[in-house]
Amino acid sequence: TTEMPFALMGYYTFPTEIVSDIMKQEGVYDTEILYNMPLDKYYEYFGADSVLFTRIKKWDVSYMVLASSLTISIEAKIVSTKTSQELWKYTGTIVVDLSGGDTGGGIGGLIAKAVIAAVNTATADYVKYAHTANRKIIYTLPFGPYHEMYMKDQGVQLVDQTPATK
After folding, report:
1. Pair 46, 22: CB distance under 8 Å
2. What domains can you pick out in the chain, each with its CATH number?
């Protein structure tokens, strides 16, 4: 879910399937190996000056009869393949309310709320929430070399305008 948003920000991206195929040809099957692989290998395999690493630190669905929520914590960084210098970093968390709306009062309202919370948790579109988490990353990213604003955004102050997700 990150490939297109990063490309729109001016970064050259490779399709996930191609990267996966090349890494498998090189004997790399486990994503944990990717984090520990020497950075010059990324330059060797892809000609990449830098690499984006993303890690989901937490993906937790909390369900408490009348309410449910999804917590996503993400860490992302761009690292130079030539100097190993960290060029950019993001760490953030979003919490999505999966409970549903107000169902009225009384015992009927409580039962309805419990049913809605259970159904919403079971049928949640988690890809949509992954996109929301990715937008939070993208909003903090400087423009890449293939964007017209590249090297013109140093003075831009970031304000998080991510809409609340329900």
Report:
1. yes
2. 3-139 (3.40.50.10610)
